[in-house]
Amino acid sequence: MLKKERHIYILDKVQSEGRALVSELTKELKVKEDTIRKDMQELSAKGLIKRVHGGALSIVNDKVDFNTRIDQNAKVKEELVKLAVPILEKADVLFIDGGTTNLKLAEKLPQSYKGRVLTNSPSVAFALSNHPHVQIYVIGGEFNKNSHVNTGSFAIKEIERIHVELCVLGISSIDSNLGITVPLFEESLLKSQLIKQSSQILSVVTKEKLEKVSTFFVEKSNALDYLVTEKSVPANIIDAYKQNGIEVLQ
User: Fold this and answer.
1) For a designed S-S bond to 173, which of 60, 89, 100, 223 qualifies (C-beta 3.0 to 4.6 A apart)?
2) Per residue in 129-183, pLDDT tens?
3) Contact (Cβ atoms closer than 8 angstroms) between residue 98 and residue 190
4) Do 51 and 74 sit in the same domain of this protein?
């Protein structure tokens, strides 16, 4: 098999499965491990995959802004958040993190819900403004124009002073082994603090964010209590999250 053909094969595998292992590829392509490692080094140098010990992971496109992402997989997000709503209704104090999926969730929160919602997302707060029984508290800080959330040391200080029953954590990339990662350092600090201040953590994650890795580490995947995702996610990936003690809803 030619190098170009191997590269295409590796990229397809990483894209479809979220990762590719050197040991598996040597058998599938009938080449030496050194050949696969060199292929992965070249692909990594081009920014097409992320090299890790024993293989490679898919890279998340972290540069797409909020206004673009809000229309991506809109119908899928709407179906997924329906599964999360019954869990949210059981909590009196919620924190809804930023993100386009979490915005959909806020929009679907029933008008009958009576509770307190804290958020670092002005968009989420606005979506809840017509709910008659919801108390809304917006965490302050520096407004990130790309992600539409308030971040920075001021936001983290505020979060340190609260406790919530259930946090709906926004996730851009998660790997069952490597955990939750984000593109910005300040974002990693904020999400890490949110996890510390919350009794339970729920995340609604579309399948393209699973088994992906970004730059800055937040927490291991077992920080989640609930993971809501699509039915089309391969069973072996779902099993990996279940083995981490996470309740998966599809």
Assistant:
1) 60
2) 999 999 999 999 999 888 889 999 999 999 999 999 999 999 999 999 999 999 8
3) no
4) no
On whether the CB atoms of residues 206 and 102 are closer than 8 A, the answer is: no
How big is the chain by its Cα radius of gyration, in Å?
Answer: 19
CA distance 238 to 216: 23
> Cβ(119)–Cβ(158) under 8 Å?
no
What gap in Å lies between CA 188 and CA 51, rounded to an integer? 21
Answer for the pair 155, 174: CB distance below 8 angstroms, yes or no: no
Q: Give the tens place of pLDDT for each residue, 82-119.
A: 999 999 999 999 999 999 999 999 999 999 999 999 99
Domain that holds residue 49: 3-59
CATH assignment of the domain containing 23: 1.10.10.10
Asked whether the whole model's pTM tops 0.90, one would answer no
Please give the full DSSP string across 43-81, using - where no structure is assigned: HHHTTSSEEETTEEEEE--TT--HHHHTTTTHHHHHHHH
53 alpha carbon, distance to own chain's centre: 22
Helix (H, G, I), strand (E, B) or coil at 122: helix
